TrEMBL record:
Keyword tags: FAD, Flavoprotein
SUPFAM superfamilies membership: FAD-linked reductases, C-terminal domain (SSF54373), FAD/NAD(P)-binding domain (SSF51905)
Cofactor: FAD
Domain Glucose-methanol-choline oxidoreductase N-terminal residue range list: 81-104, 253-267
Protein name: Glucose-methanol-choline oxidoreductase
InterPro entries associated with the record: FAD/NAD-bd_sf (IPR036188), GMC_OxRdtase (IPR012132), GMC_OxRdtase_N (IPR000172), GMC_OxRtase_C (IPR007867)
Amino acid sequence: MQNFDYIIAGAGSAGCVLASRLSQDPNVRVCLLEAGGNDKSPFIQVPTGVIAIMPTKLHNWAFDTTAQKGLNGRLGYQPRGKALGGSSSINAMMYARGHKSDYDHWQSLGNEGWSYKDCLPYFKKSENHEFINDEYHGQGGPLNVAKLIEPSNLVDCFIAGCESIGVPHNPDINGAEQFGVMQTHVTQKNGERCSAAKAYLTPHLSRSNLSVITGATSSKVLLKGKKAVGMEYIHKGETKQLFANLEVILSAGAFGSPQLLQLSGIGNSDALSDHGIACQHELPGVGENLQDHIDLVSSYRCDSKLDAFGFTPRGIARITKALPQWFLKRRGKLTSNFAEGIAFVKSDVDMAVPDLEFVFVVGIVDDHARHLHLSHGYSNHVTLLRPKSRGSVKLASADPFAAMSIDPNFFDSEEDMELMIKAWKLQHKMLNSEAFEGIRGQQLYPVDPNDERAIIEDIRNRADTQYHPVGTCKMGPSSDPMAVVDNELCVHGLQGLRVVDASIMPSLVGGNTNAPTIMIAEKIAALIIKQRKALKRVS
C-alpha cells in the first residue's frame, strides 16, 4: 500500500502547477497520475509541431462530440492533450487571460475571493514576462511569456485590417485594456514551447518527494463514507490503489474530472444507475454547465512567395531550411505558433467589453487542419467569447478507458447564432479591407455577405470549438443546486476532495483558457499550503 499526502489525477495545466508547488516542501509527499506519456517528443517542443498534433491522435485524445443539432448534425472535434502538460503541450501557446469583468462576475455569483483583484496576483506569480514589467505582469515565475521570434509580415496586414473596422492597436491585451489587436504573445522560452509541464514539472522531477506516474488511467476516487481517502488507477493493465493522508485532487480537465467523479459514484444518481454505478454522493451538477468557445474560420489562398505556410514545393523547401535553424539555434520559422495575431473585438461599438476574438493564422486552417490544401494561405478565426448555450459531459460507459459523451450543445441559444452572424460579417469586412489588397487570393468557402440564409448555413456547416471547454464541475455556493465545488474548490458535501482545473469555471472567460487554468492552480496551491501550515501549528 502506497501512501502520499496529496494525490493529483491529471498532469495538465493545473496538475503540473499543483504538483510543483505542493512538493516544494520536502516533508510533503505528492503523487501525480497522468494517463498520457511524457512530453519529450519534438512535436511538442518544436512550436510548429502543433500542426502535426492537432488533427491526429499524436499526444492527443482527439475526442468527438455527440451529433450537434446546431451544426447540422455534425460531430464536433475536441483535441485534448495526452502527455505531461495536458493541452498546454499541444495548444497554440497563445497567452490571453480574459477580461477583468469575467473574474468579477465569478465573485458576483457567490464565489468570494475570485474577483479580478484577487486573481491578478496569481497570474503575476505564474508569469515571467520577457518584455513587459508593470502592475499587470510578473517576472520570475515559471511560465515564460515571449514575443514571436520570427513573425510573418502578414500579421501587419491583420493589424491594419482590424484597425480599418475600428479595432485599435493595443500592445498588451492582458494589461489595462483588453480591446484591441496585437501580435500574439506566446508561452515559449528560447524558441521552445513552454507548457505547464516544461514550466512547472519537468525541472523538479528529481525531487524525492514527488512521484509522477505516466500511462496511469485514474479510474475511481476511493471513498470512506463521505471522505476521499485515495485513488484507484490502471497502469500497464494492472489495477492499483494509492492512499492520501491529506487530499485527493482531480485535475483531469473539463472532460476527465467529471468522468472521474461519476465513475466514483459522485453525481446524478439516475444517470449513474444507467451504467450500474451505485451513487455514493448525490451531486446533480457533475458534468453539467459545459461551455465552450464556438468558432468559425475563414481562409484565403495566397501567392507562395508571401510569408505564409503551405504544403507546396516552396513551402516544403522553407521548412527544410528551417530545420537546422531550430535544432542548432532555436530560431527560424519553426518557432511560429501559426496563430500569430490576436484581437479582442466588440460586435457593437457601444459595448463596454469585447465579446468576440479574432485569431489570425499564417496558414490555411480547414476543419482543424484535418483537411489539407496544396497551397499557401492565411486564415482568421472569429470566436464568441461568452456563448449562452450550455451542454454536458456524461458517461458513455462505466469503462474508465471509454470516451465521455460530450455535448457542447452549440447554438442551442438563438442569441449565439444572432451574434455569430454579426461576427461573420465583421470578419468578412476585416478580411476584405484594403489591408489585404494585393495579397488576397481565392477564398476557400465564399459566401455572399448579403445572403443571411447562406451565412447561417455556412456557420452551421463549418463552425466548431476553439478548444476551451470549461464549467463541468462548477464553482458555486451550496445554495446553487448545480454547483460541484465551493470557492476553495472542495467538492460540496465531501471531505478531502478538490477539483482544480478549467472544469470549475462557473462561466467562460473572454479569452483563452490556459493562463486562467494555471492561475486557478496557483491560487489553490497557495491556499492548500496555507491551510496545511495552519493545521500543523494547531497539531
